[in-house]
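Milestone 3.1: sequence recovery, worked example.
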């Protein structure tokens, strides 16, 4: 029997059906609300609003659970490759060997970028932020890969083949763009790499190969990179993913939607937090390492300083990704023989915050970004590139959501508002103002 929620208003009452998810989450289906009552809901930041039904990622913020297509993040991070996880997110199942090989070879086939794109890259000033460059180049890919209008293709199989083509193109080209953005900033030659090495192995080579030296793969680096990319691969309806879905809902192309997702991820309250965490840890270190001083600043409501890497819109007990990444950070620093005072500062901050009532009562815990920057730093990735690495990991998640949004035939995203501006008033000519 369908459960109902009753809304009473102005002497009338209307019933709305409840929607139940596969993990027993309940939501009120208010699709008929406006037609029945002339009311809308007001929910800034969408803290209580579900924008869609999704079968990709399950997240239980109260209990620190994160699963991609039903598989726990712990199992995937410890046992799978990033390419397997990408396939899982996009197509719904883990690939068998043949499917995985075909996926990789289709990506390999598309691992080329028009050389003219390098001219666009050349025109960016040296100081440009890599996230802005990546977003622009991702959008520019459209000009070099003219797209058909999917809405004009009628045959379902043809649509699926066309979408598959777009997906492998994007997965092939984004890592090249990421490595070019990094190499350009570092004054290195722009290469293409070789996906026959493996997806993450190739990314690592494209990032770190020096033009004057033979390249030797460091398995610790590859394994850390694999884990980081998996942990960032999806996180249900966050700011950037919702952006991708909403841009895609206008029938903008996959590349345009992902370019918008990259811009949304850039901000320091979202993906940009990983760079902000390292900036913060370095500032504390340069200031003499007094973590207590910065804890006081974080708690002072007259100070805009926040403890970056702490708090999360959904996780209110712990972020399961932060648990995995904390262990990985220790492993990577140990394995690479790196002693970094920044890690000690991070540990002190974490310890102090976890026993401070300001943080505990607000249920603020370290999020994935608190430790990821420390690993990227150990891998010798410049801090301006941290959020770009996050974007690289998030691409399969964005693709999966764009594909699901299309498959579900979701309507164009278009929220309403409560208008609180001036009522109608007469125009006053310029000389009378
Ligand atoms: N440091 C100090 N105080 C904080 C912090 C923090 N990092 N985070 C939240 N608070 C306080 C707020 O000031 C507020 O206090 P109040 O109730 O006294 O006004 C309370 O905790 C609730 O915070 P909100 O900002 O309302 O929580 P919201 O869910 O909107 O924001 C967010 C979540 C943006 C992640 C926030 O915790 C934050 O700014 N954290 C730091 C940035 C960060 O690490 N972002 C990465 C998120 S993970 C990701 O995107 C990959």
């Amino acid at each position: 029997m369908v459960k109902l929620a009753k809304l009473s208003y102005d002497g009338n009452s209307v019933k709305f059906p409840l929607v139940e998810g596969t993990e027993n989450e309940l939501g009120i289906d208010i699709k008929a609300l406006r037609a029945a009552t002339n009311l809308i809901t007001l929910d800034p930041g969408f803290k209580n609003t579900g924008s869609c039904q999704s079968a990709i990622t399950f997240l239980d913020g109260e209990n620190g659970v994160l699963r991609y297509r039903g598989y726990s993040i712990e199992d995937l991070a410890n046992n799978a490759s990033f390419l397997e996880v990408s396939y899982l997110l996009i197509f719904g199942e883990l690939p068998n060997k043949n499917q995985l090989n075909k996926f990789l070879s289709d990506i390999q086939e598309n691992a080329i970028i028009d050389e003219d794109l390098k001219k666009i890259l050349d025109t960016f000033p040296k100081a440009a932020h890599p996230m802005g460059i990546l977003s622009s180049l991702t959008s520019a890919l459209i000009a070099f890969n003219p797209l058909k209008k999917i809405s004009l293709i009628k045959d379902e199989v043809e649509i699926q083949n066309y979408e598959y083509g777009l997906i492998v193109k994007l997965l092939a080209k984004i890592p090249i763009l990421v490595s070019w953005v990094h190499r350009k900033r570092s004054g290195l030659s722009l290469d293409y790499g070789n996906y026959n090495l493996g997806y993450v192995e190739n990314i690592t080579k494209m990032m770190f190969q020096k033009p004057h030296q033979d390249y030797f793969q460091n398995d610790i680096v590859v394994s850390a990179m694999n884990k980081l990319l998996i942990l960032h691969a999806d996180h249900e309806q966050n700011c950037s993913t919702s952006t991708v879905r909403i841009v895609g809902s206008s029938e903008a192309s996959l590349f345009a939607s992902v370019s918008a997702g990259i811009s949304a991820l850039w901000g320091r309250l979202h993906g940009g937090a990983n760079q902000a965490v390292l900036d913060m840890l370095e500032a504390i270190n340069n200031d003499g390492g007094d973590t207590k001083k910065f804890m006081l600043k974080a708690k002072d409501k007259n100070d805009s300083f926040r403890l970056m890497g702490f708090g999360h819109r959904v996780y209110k007990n712990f972020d399961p990704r932060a648990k995995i990444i904390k262990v990985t950070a220790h492993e990577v620093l140990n394995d690479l023989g790196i002693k970094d005072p920044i890690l000690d500062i991070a540990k002190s901050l974490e310890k102090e915050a976890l026993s401070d009532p300001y943080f505990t009562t607000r249920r603020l815990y370290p999020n994935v970004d608190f430790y990821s920057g420390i690993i990227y730093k150990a891998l010798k990735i410049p801090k301006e590139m941290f959020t770009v690495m996050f974007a690289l990991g998030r691409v399969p998640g964005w693709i999966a959501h764009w594909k699901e949004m299309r498959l579900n035939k979701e309507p164009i995203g278009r929220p309403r508002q409560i208008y609180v501006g001036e009522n109608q008033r007469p125009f006053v000519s310029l000389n009378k103002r």
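Strands lie at 4-9, 12-20, 26-28, 57-60, 65-68, 71-72. The first helix runs from residue 33 to 37.
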